[in-house]
Structures are given as structure tokens and as C-alpha cells.
Write a structure and sequence with these properties.
about 230 residues, alpha/beta, Alpha-Beta Plaits, about 20% strand
Length: about 230
Amino acid sequence: MSVRESHRVLVAGTSAVAQEVARQLRERGEQVRMVGAEEERVEELRQLGFEVELVNIGDDDELLALGLENELDVFFSLLGNDADNVFLVISVRALAPNLPIVSISESEETRKRLVAAGATKVIDPYQISGYRIYEWMHRPVIAELMEQTVFGHDVDLEIAEIRVPAGSFLDGEYLDHLSLGSRYNLVVLGVVDRDYGDRLIFATHPKRHRIDKNDVIVVIGECEALERLRDDLS
């Protein structure tokens, strides 16, 4: 069985959101560091067991010293306000043109600014909250699984995105007929078809969808079962 490779993640910010993101990623085996500019808050997080550095994020030299160019896989800009996040994303993108940057926004206008500044992905917490409410109303079983994994503390389960190789047993299968429960004990949430952008097509969608090579299925289950599926596909 292949061993899941961890990612080197840097979380900029010491807010409650930054702390929760760092905790979730760390519990899932990622290599997580945090940086912040408030000495008191940095010390509080250290006491809680986080790896945190006191850094002036407005100084390019201090940012470069964090290893932006070759020592990171993902950078999270999760500062306390939108303007600071826009400024930080601009700086990091200039210093590390190829580094994936994830940020957070509370408005569509700021989301556009962050994307223009160079953010790879922008998350809207209000949109996430609305999505969770909708799921609880319309898909309670999936919502419960999501609550226990992404938003909860059950580290034995994981949501994974798995690309479909050409010629594999998933290539050409229909989403509504795809069942990985009996063989892997996995729940299929949906598929991302690159021909239609990055939107997740849920398994419960009424329109039939044919899975093709390079599509990405989104599944939930135990880490060991996910690795068995990856091995069988490869």
C-alpha cells in the first residue's frame, strides 16, 4: 500500500479561523506552521501546541525566510481583515509565482480583488455556512458525514479527491451507478468534470453523468480504504 504524502503548509494569521484550519490540517497529517504579528497571540498558540513564528508579514525578506520559493506546498492567507489579506497575497505571489495561495473573503468584491492579486483559491465562510444549512435540510446523511470529518474531529475519516486514470474500472462508469461501498466501504459524494469547470456534481444530481478519464471523484471514508482505491486505480 502506498503511503500518503503530507503537504508542507504555512498558515499566515492567528485568528480563530486560522487556528481551526491549522488544527484540522495538522490532525490529518499535514506539516503545518503558522506565522503571526501579534506576540501575545503567538505565545497563546504556542501554549496550545502549535508551531508558530512571530513574523512581520509586511517585510519581504522575512517572508522569503519562511521558504516560500521551495519549502512550501500551500500558503494560507487568513489574516483578520480583507485589506491585509489582499496585500499579503500580492506580496507572496510576487515572491513565489508558482506557490498555491488560499485566502478568505466575506464579500464578492474582495474575492475578486484577492483573485486579481494572485490567490489560487478564495473561500467565503458565509457561503460555506449556507451550504451546510442546505445540506442538513436536503441531504442529511451526507451532511452528517461532512460534520464528522471536515467540520468535526474524527481523524479516521477523510474526504479525498481522486483522479480517474484512463482505462481504469471507473473510466466510462456512470455516477449514479458508481458504488464503492461494498468493495471499499467508501461513500461517493460526487465528481468534478474538468470539461465543466471546478464545480462538484453531486452523486444525487438528477441528470446522469458519465465519468471519463481525468475526472476527479470526491469520496469519503477511512484513510486505509482510500489508499486501497488509489492503489487499485494506479
